[in-house]
Amino acid sequence: MTPQQIHLVQAIRDVVRREERAERTAELVAEALRPFLAVPDLLREDQRTGDPGSYTQHVLHVEPDGSFSVVALVWLPGQRTPVHDHVAWCVTGVYEGVEHEQRFTVHDGSSLVPTQQVTNPAGDVCGFAPPGDIHLVRNACTTKAISLHVYGADIGTLGTSVRRTYDLPVRAAV
Description:
Elements: H1 3-16, H2 22-33, E1 56-62, E2 69-75, E3 84-86, E4 90-96, E5 98-107, E6 111-121, E7 125-128, E8 135-139, E9 145-151, H3 155-158, E10 162-165
Antiparallel strand pairs: 1-2, 2-9, 3-10, 4-7, 4-9, 5-6, 5-8
Helix pairs in contact: 1-2
């Protein structure tokens, strides 16, 4: 880890150890993450590399007790996630580029309804906790985008923060 990553992990650790409810933890972690998004040497060069086939996940830290993980996601132009939700609270901060998020709800168990679109430029943070965390994220710029994700889960063991993906038709908002 870089020295700045060590400071970031400590700031997150201090918040998580407060043992607040999930929504509050996400809010506090978002505030702890925000100043690190402007640190130019936060990521090593190998942690800034993408893959033309899919967005790339670089695990930066998994807390030994499994209470949180820090991941850098690198998105090349046009890359996106499937529509998904998460196993735990999540905080995202855009480090470089612009990300677009489309949030959804499930209608009658048979379709997705768009609820909100959010465009996040570098420096923006957002946090959420299940339920109500169904979304799709994509690179919204013509250059590489990098975001830092903090999950309230052990990504080292799970391999992902995704609880499930949704392959339902998208209908107009009601």
